[in-house]
Amino acid sequence: MPNLSPIAGVGLGHYLILAAIIFCIGIIGVLLRKNIIVIMMSVELMLNAVNLTFVSLGHFNGSAAGQISVFFIMTIAAAEAAVGLALVVLIFKKYGEVSIKLFERLKG
Amino acid sequence: MLSAYDLVFYFLAVFALFSAFGVVTSASPIYSAFFLVLTMMDIACLFVMLGAFFIAGVQLIVYAGAVVVLFVMVLMLFNLHQETEAFSKGTLSGMAKLGATGLLCGILATTLFNFASRAKSMAADISPEESTEKLAKLLFSDYVFGFEAISILILVVAVGAVALSQLKGGSHAKS
Question: Which residue, B89, B34, B96, B97, is CA-closest to A38?
């Protein structure tokens, strides 16, 4: 077991557990909110938690490969936000509301 | 004894949890966006503490700058000041969701706990120039294929966003 007492100093375990908790808060947001924009913000929160995991693992293993993954994740997250928000604008123009339940009408 | 590094980490951790909680629980989406900026900045500070200086800068510019501004601009397009039902209905299903997330959090925490105990930690003290140079060398040698693939992805996404906005009912629809 890693020593998580405050006397031992902050290590890898602290960062990983912080990232896990932020990830779970993001999941709660995705599951419980109705507004699509807030759901997308929660997804960004989850992606950020994963980035934190990558960077901390890379740092404590003395490798820069974790930061490369973060680089790619950031690019893809920005692309995802652009396409997702374009869809949200379409939904709002059509129904005048940005609730997640309106996505079921997008078929066809 | 707590070192300055530990104190800064605990402060940033508590602040990150507080602002992440704010993103999820704010009834108004604009406050969610505000808390999201705070979370991004906090995580950028954690990146600096981990020696990832370039990533911290990119986090501030791309995430806290571009992505969140995109969110806020889309929010300003809509008239959303009356959000009566921020959370989805159903107390029972809400409890089930919270319980499932709690279980997942527990699984993640125990897995990470065991993993972190086995991982050897050898945090090297590297300067900003050194870490950025290492990153650039890796990106343009071993990972250059992924780099080029990302550029194609961005092209596809740009075309896709334009195509979506020209659909019937989009913001640039051909009438």
Answer: B34
Nearest-angstrom CA–CA distance, A80 and A89: 14
CA B58 to CA B40: how far, in whole Å? 11
* Max Cα distance, chain A (Å): 60
CB B133 within 8 A of CB A57: no
| Residue of chain A minimizing CA distance to B28 | A38
CB atoms < 10 A from the CB of A53, how many? 22
Instruction: Report the alpha-carbon angle B101-A66-B13, nearest 5.
Output: 50
Are A81 and B117 within 8 A, CB to CB? no
**In terms of Cα–Cα distance, which of B140, B146, B80 is closest to A33?**
B80
pLDDT less than 50: residues of chain A: 1, 6
Residue B58 and residue A55: Cα distance in Å, rounded? 13
Residue B107 identity: I
DSSP letter for B63, please: I
**pLDDT tens figures, B27-41:** 888 899 999 999 999
Tokens of A45: 């929160």
B22 touches chain A (CB under 8 A): no
- Residue A105 in contact with partner chain B when CB distance is under 8 A: no
Has the ipTM of the complex gone over 0.90? no
Reported as a single tens digit per residue, the pLDDT across B85-133 is: 667 777 888 888 889 888 888 888 888 878 777 766 666 666 777 788 8
Kindly state the helix (H) or strand (E) to which residue B8 belongs, with its residue range: helix B4-25
Residue found by looking up tokens 């995705």 in the block: A30
| Cβ contact, residue pair B47, A17, below 8 Å | no
Please tell me which of the candidates A12, A45, A68 has its beta carbon nearest to residue B20.
A45
Q: Do B112 and A20 touch (CB under 8 A)?
A: yes
